[in-house]
Design brief:
Elements lengths: L14 H17 L5 E2 L12 H10 L6 E2 L2 H4 L2 H10 L3 E2 L7 E5 L23 E5 L9 E4 L7 E3 L8 H9 L7 E6 L2 E5 L4 E5 L1
Parallel strand pairs: 2-3, 2-4, 4-5, 5-8
Antiparallel strand pairs: 1-9, 6-7, 6-10, 8-9
Length: 201
Amino acid sequence: MAHDDTRIGAGFADPVFQSQGAFRALLAALSEPGLARDLGHAVDAPPGLAQATAVALLTLADYETPIWLPAALRDGPAGAWLRFHCAAALVDDPARAAFAVIDGAAPEPQLASFNAGDDQFPDRSTTVLVQCAGLDGGETVTLAGPGIPGRRTIAPAGLRAGFWAEVAGNAALYPLGVDLLLIHGAEVLGLPRSTQILETR
């Protein structure tokens, strides 16, 4: 069935229960990097936002957390949906964003465009939601770091050339740097700034 772009889709039917469940899943994704978590289909996601992206933003964002979206999403149904459900400010400067949504295949913006935090407030960096073509079937990447016993491999699909070099450069900034959530459909895979990229092939 075609999506009616003039209608703002539903958010959580039970905001307290559903947001708590999604928050726990997001924390689990970031505490065990590389293990996908299912955020479910609790909302009517607008065009351009994956289910997990919509659920994550509805869980994490509010009027105090500016969001960066590509212009086509910011000026369309996705922007209207987020303004309505989160009362969030949508900004056009990536460095001002608390949360950002990017297309993993698009060449811009680079991860370095977002706020990496500072020595006094490293926790004020941007959390970047990277929408992917899939969470498997792509280039194999070996991870290490907190929350990973030994090593772990992932293979997200549909990411731009040089993406993993950007992630490695971001990890080199630790304890500064952005945190990443790789998203496809209703699933999310966490890559906090503390995760090291050991190998890609």
